[in-house]
Amino acid sequence: MADSTKKYTHFNVTFPREYVAHIETNRPEKLNSFYQPMWLELRTILDTLSHSPDVRALILSGAGPRAFTAGLDVKAASTSLFAKDESLDGARVAARLRRDVLEFQDCVTALERCEKPVIVVMHGISFGLGIDLATAADIRICARDVRFSVKEVDIGLAADVGSLSRLPKVVGHFGWVKEVCLSAREFGAEEAARVGFVNSVHESKEAAIQAGLDLAVSIASKSPVAVQGTKELLNWSRDHSVQDGLRYTGVWNSAALQTKDISAALFSGIEKRTPTFEKL
Amino acid sequence: MADSTKKYTHFNVTFPREYVAHIETNRPEKLNSFYQPMWLELRTILDTLSHSPDVRALILSGAGPRAFTAGLDVKAASTSLFAKDESLDGARVAARLRRDVLEFQDCVTALERCEKPVIVVMHGISFGLGIDLATAADIRICARDVRFSVKEVDIGLAADVGSLSRLPKVVGHFGWVKEVCLSAREFGAEEAARVGFVNSVHESKEAAIQAGLDLAVSIASKSPVAVQGTKELLNWSRDHSVQDGLRYTGVWNSAALQTKDISAALFSGIEKRTPTFEKL
Amino acid sequence: MADSTKKYTHFNVTFPREYVAHIETNRPEKLNSFYQPMWLELRTILDTLSHSPDVRALILSGAGPRAFTAGLDVKAASTSLFAKDESLDGARVAARLRRDVLEFQDCVTALERCEKPVIVVMHGISFGLGIDLATAADIRICARDVRFSVKEVDIGLAADVGSLSRLPKVVGHFGWVKEVCLSAREFGAEEAARVGFVNSVHESKEAAIQAGLDLAVSIASKSPVAVQGTKELLNWSRDHSVQDGLRYTGVWNSAALQTKDISAALFSGIEKRTPTFEKL
Amino acid sequence: MADSTKKYTHFNVTFPREYVAHIETNRPEKLNSFYQPMWLELRTILDTLSHSPDVRALILSGAGPRAFTAGLDVKAASTSLFAKDESLDGARVAARLRRDVLEFQDCVTALERCEKPVIVVMHGISFGLGIDLATAADIRICARDVRFSVKEVDIGLAADVGSLSRLPKVVGHFGWVKEVCLSAREFGAEEAARVGFVNSVHESKEAAIQAGLDLAVSIASKSPVAVQGTKELLNWSRDHSVQDGLRYTGVWNSAALQTKDISAALFSGIEKRTPTFEKL
Amino acid sequence: MADSTKKYTHFNVTFPREYVAHIETNRPEKLNSFYQPMWLELRTILDTLSHSPDVRALILSGAGPRAFTAGLDVKAASTSLFAKDESLDGARVAARLRRDVLEFQDCVTALERCEKPVIVVMHGISFGLGIDLATAADIRICARDVRFSVKEVDIGLAADVGSLSRLPKVVGHFGWVKEVCLSAREFGAEEAARVGFVNSVHESKEAAIQAGLDLAVSIASKSPVAVQGTKELLNWSRDHSVQDGLRYTGVWNSAALQTKDISAALFSGIEKRTPTFEKL
Amino acid sequence: MADSTKKYTHFNVTFPREYVAHIETNRPEKLNSFYQPMWLELRTILDTLSHSPDVRALILSGAGPRAFTAGLDVKAASTSLFAKDESLDGARVAARLRRDVLEFQDCVTALERCEKPVIVVMHGISFGLGIDLATAADIRICARDVRFSVKEVDIGLAADVGSLSRLPKVVGHFGWVKEVCLSAREFGAEEAARVGFVNSVHESKEAAIQAGLDLAVSIASKSPVAVQGTKELLNWSRDHSVQDGLRYTGVWNSAALQTKDISAALFSGIEKRTPTFEKL
Question: Based on CB atoms within 10 Å of each CB, which residue in D224, E217, F16, F31 is the most buried?
Fold first, then answer.
């Protein structure tokens, strides 16, 4: 299996099923809060698995019983991202901040850019960066004990690594999006399911992980040409007009339809057996 | 009434109420699955009714008790769309596929392009192309027995005639859209209503048709200037910024407000009678 | 408090809490229906409060027990907006209508352009222009007795001051949007909550006002840098691709992160006291 | 050769060289002015040749010594496009005009939509619709005697079938575009070459046709996969951001690079002979 | 004639020909440099003339022999736009600057927003804001003695009221645009004409004014329906895809074609006399 | 100076003047043609210099007397980019090609993404990839002996790493762009200057390098806040509407105007000495 011997510092990466990777944020003693080396490493992991032929679906979750993630490690940020250098004028401070924020955004966007679907499984505290990560993934699942908050306004920030750009495209209830982003109020699993922020709610973290795994296995059993095309075309369509979406789809599929997976799938269907597909 | 004597090969086109057309896919023995001549004919019907002054609202449904449509007739496609010509290189195969897909897309888009609102009424099996057609229509209604599936990944395809471009704009729960498109799992009437894929669920196919008809009659009783403008402006707004939407609306209405329908509607309101409007 | 002595003709503007403004449409004897001087004055009020350092959140509601607003005062419009000048040709009539509509739109857009969040609280009759105003606000709250209708097609119009451009971006159920806009049928509080048109439903107008006030107070207690940035970035993201959203966010925050509000918020958090923020 | 036996009513279609088609507007007695059946037929011709494997480049010119085209046949238009039906209100007149204009635009767009490059060769009077057609083509060539005018304002119109949308994208001197469109003043070959409206100027109509033919032959000698991809990608890029252009190019070429034309071209280059390419 | 008795503080507004307005910046003793009250007044003038039925074309120039404008009055700006308030944090300074810049931009955009074509006539020093104003106008004309410079980088700024947004859309030579914006080097009339920044060069300021006047008179003699539509559609097309341009044009013209100006123009053409058009 | 001790394999990187970097492609024996390790290294160099505080302007040129670059090393590509793996189906080949092309594009885009202006100096053979690189830079300069060609169609390709996306935005003469891309014909320095592809032409390679250096020195002497903002805002504006350009400019400058460079520049101007600016 892919990269199975590779060890990472801040994340456990395992391959619990064929073609399925599981990335687990591993800093439970700090509620899986993130500091810069972590998001850089997460990007490395995702960019690697994105191209690995042994991976067709991914799960992202957090270690320990208490939190998917408490978000940004504010203490660490106060000596880096939020650190002040009084010798610089406002424009120069801005230039540094811009570089830092754009790099940070790019690490989160690695979830979206990953060629294979990513299912995020959330439990416990899932604040701030937790929402940024979740909205960059494809499918969101949670345990009943989850506590969500777009927490940033509570620390004087407009969320800057994706929630404000992606949440309005993930949840169709724009008033609700505004409310939770402007007030930073917590919301739970049931509310998240009702407004469409999560796909399903499960009794425990373990049950949620299992559900994520089952879904990943199901997706990984399909033609990777079809699955990866579907992810790409849905993301493209989100940001373009219907007409541009159709055109791009036509061009994309002019190559994708030249796959043997179609006949493999059709024959398996007729013969009522599970198809196998070449690696991609 | 419009074109009432015109016979089509694959569709029954009737005019059950004044200003209301009903298009019924008529291939029940094959679960109303589609092959190329059918989508070409559907385009012809829609482009004709779009300009007919005798039509103000349309319904689309499928004949027989079992299916709205099983989707693409895969068998037929395997000798046309999916047929291989080994003499051609990959680029030339792609060029042919692109033309075919773009033509196919254009036939489905005829539902969207139609100047009058189209209500699609679904029952039984409604797979693959059934979703493409449904998302290109304006309003979706279903019977309780409906079985939906964005089926394409199961045959090795990313859906290519509209579902991936339109479903994210029809349903605001992007995670759910991703899940059903990536996994091809079936979903039923209740789930479809909950996520906003359909407007209403009815006890039987007959009840759903009746509900669609009632809604069509209601829409057909309004000013056609107002109704057709509303469809156009909503579709434009879906694909443009709010500002471009407002501007286009202002320009559109600078002509539309010059209609006698406004005074007709206002006077009827005062006199508590049903207004009549000139043909359009 | 801001402008507390300023009197307006058609609106009551009060400041019920620190940093919270309440605008009340004050024409209850006409069901708070609007004519041109009213929307011009509303724009003036909003543009003023938008820049007032004493305001951090706003509520908009309607006076009297019967209506948020019955919409456009059709009688007044028939001698202005809809008035006919037979001496002009169709192009010249269009030019006048275009100017009038664009000005009218701009007055409604003042709700969206306002730098601070606007919560609209609706009760009783909330027709036509009421929907236009509501969709231009950030958060929608209603009383249980509310009666909503995108009424315009009933008077021969496609809605022209915002509903058709904004409703599809406020509610993620596009089929429902089409249905209510094409049929002008009424819908109530429960349906509005279910589809995501309103954030919450309250037992009475008074309870709804109180809930709006509570939410406004909560928002007004946060860093105004964070809150105003959040509103701006969410609105920008609605109309742009995710990538453009991220980029704009990075640039915006390169200045916004230079606020003392962050350390104020962080220290208050540690010391478990309420932070205070400089005016903005 | 392609469709060589097909006769058209208003156009001479010939195949003067291998893979090169020549469309000649044939109404010299009326200065090649257009009325509706002509633009409908032109669309048919272009849509046919667009898919013909025997055509790789096209030329469009006008018969007779006096005019490429005098533009719209105003006399004919006054009984069709400009005809008045006093029984209709302004909105209904607008609906008819909109349909007519959109259909007319679509016929002109056939030049742009044609998969193969179109070179337009202009001489003598080239007014109004002549500019619309020219801007929808890929390359513009003219004889020294040419007289250009964006004539529409002189008959009370803003040009409506493409010049105002395409001329700013064809000529980079926006002030000049505004001037000639607002004033309708004539300009000649030299000015057209200077601002970049035409690619080259030739001594006579015959010399211009010959130059167009030479260029068409040169283009037709290249890989049709490469040529048709180049046209498509340039047109796409005109209307999209650089980033969207790059992405679309990457997707397009993922199929196009699977052509045997590349090795054919490379080997021919090494062996210093002319490559031949399969039909497309 | 329009508003002929209205006096402005910083501008001379005259009506030298029927339907032609001339706005002259009148601060020659300061090289027509601008401070805030001036751009606010310029906006007022333009918004007024935009709707005046007595104006069909405008000229903008600068008083005195030495300068069209030296740009921003830096001295005045240093106590307003560039003034520092040390008590504010970087985010709050940014909020003030943003409001000021957006207001300033809106005043310059009044040239573009003006419904009638604006011809700017430049001579002598035309620096900084002079380029911003020029690019927001429709047509640029200059005297031979003109000295242009996108001066902002020389005072530590990226130009912020339009040059960087509009110059790349006015001049098709992007490398040249970059060079003059990045280096702030001066360029003269000949270079400006060569790259397409100006439409024409004249021997003296007086000759340039006369040429601008002649062009304005020519434009003012045309159908105002056609002229104003042409300006609008060209500006719309600059910022949209060709397809969106065509659609908007079709909708716009569905009203505009209902003008009597078309028959007025056609009959005048036949009778070889000058048409007259109703006011707009 | 920046990274002055760093050695690269395929490029000479020197710092001929304060704040000016010179990147020289160093494979003259192969006419500076590129293979994969070269474009990967070029990206590394550019991403590094982009953030180096010691660099404010860059020059890119090619070593040796014969070529800026002959483009892609086709021989090397035939064993990598164009290599065939017969075991893969068309969709899987496409997936690999897509990844390769997107990576290649990203390396070229590093020129555009570089925060500081890049001046490309071209001489001799400048084919294919040479045009891709040139259009991604900010300013293009050439020697009189230069030979340009958008060469790709001659080897069966539509150019895929930027020329087709950027050339139409760099040169305003779209017909010329189409001609040179469709025909692959060579063009020289004079033609390049006339159409606006290059900013200036110089007698020899040495003179061109000197001119590039002088321009780089001039740009490097300005406020880096102003220069880097100008590059960013011009690139943003190229891909967005004027309105989005203005808004982004306002937000960008709300931080950038908080620089001490403005007062430094203003005081130096008054005191007629050269300003110095803090590093950025």
Answer: D224
Mutate to test the interface with E, among B248, B253, B259 (most CBs of E within 10 A): B248
Same domain, E255 and E120: no
> Looking at the structure, do residues A144 and A232 belong to the same domain, yes or no?
no
Closest in C94, C261, C278 to E255, CB measured: C94
Residues across chain A:
280
Domain count, chain F: 2
Question: pLDDT (tens digit, 9 = 90+) per residue, B76-102?
Answer: 887 777 777 888 999 999 999 999 999
Question: pLDDT, tens digit, for every residue of F193-242?
Answer: 999 999 999 999 999 999 999 999 999 999 999 999 999 999 999 999 99
Does the pLDDT at position F123 exceed 50?
yes
Please give the share of chain B, as a percent, with pLDDT higher than 70. Answer: 98
Residue B4 placed within a domain: no
Question: Mind listing the pLDDT tens digit for each residue in C167-225?
Answer: 999 999 999 999 999 999 999 999 999 999 999 999 999 999 999 999 999 999 999 99
Query: Are the beta carbons of C159 and B265 separated by less than 8 Å?
Result: no
F212 by DSSP, 3-state: which?
helix
Neighbouring CB atoms inside 10 A of D270's CB total 9
Q: Does E239 touch chain F (CB under 8 A)?
A: yes
Do residues C136 and C242 both lie within one domain?
no
Closest among B170, C240, C197, C234 to A195, alpha carbons compared:
C197
Q: Alpha-carbon distance D122 to C24, whole Å? A: 65
C69 interface with A at CB cutoff 8 Å: no
User: Which of A32-36, A174-178, D13-17, F2-6 shows the lowest per-residue confidence on average (mean pLDDT)?
Assistant: F2-6
Decide if A155 touches C, using CB distance below 8 A.
Answer: yes
Residues of F in contact with E156 (CB under 8 A): 223, 225-226, 259, 261-266, 277
Q: Determine, for residues F78 and D237 on separate chains, whether the beta-carbon distance falls below 8 Å.
A: no
Please report all neighbours of B, defined by 3+ CB atom pairs within 8 A.
Answer: A, C, D, E, F
Question: DSSP string covering E132-158, please?
Answer: HHHHHSSEEEEETT-EEE-GGGGGT--
Positions of E strands within chain C: 11-17, 20-25, 57-62, 67-69, 118-122, 125-127, 139-143, 147-149, 200-202
Residues D105 and D173 in one domain: yes
Domain residues for the domain of F98 are 11-220
Q: What is the CATH number of the domain that holds C23?
A: 3.90.226.10
Q: Where are the alpha helices (DSSP H) in E72-122?
A: 74-78, 90-113
- Residue A280: list chain F partners with CB under 8 A: 91-92, 95
Residues β-bridged to residue A25: A11, A62
CA distance A165 to A239: 11
Distance, CA of B69 to CA of B58 (rounded, Å): 18
Asked if D128 and D148 touch (Cβ cutoff 8 Å), the reply is no
- Mean pLDDT on C92-97: 96
Evaluate if residue B128 carries a pLDDT over 90. Answer: yes
Whether B48 and B119 map to the same domain: the answer is yes
Of A220-224, B162-166, B264-268, D45-49, which gets the smallest average pLDDT?
Answer: B264-268
Look at residue F47 and tell me if it is in a domain. yes
When pLDDT is cut at 50, 70 and 90, the band that residue F1 belongs to is very low
pLDDT of amino acid A1: 43
What confidence tens digit (pLDDT) does each residue in A220-244 have?
A: 999 999 999 999 999 999 999 999 9
Question: Do B259 and D92 count as a contact with CB atoms less than 8 A apart?
Answer: yes
Interface ipTM > 0.90: yes
CA of E180, closest CA in chain A: separation in Å?
23
Residues A160 and A253 in one domain: no
The model's pTM: 0.97
Contact indicator for D57, D117 with CB cutoff of 8 Å: yes
A233 touching C (Cβ < 8 Å): no
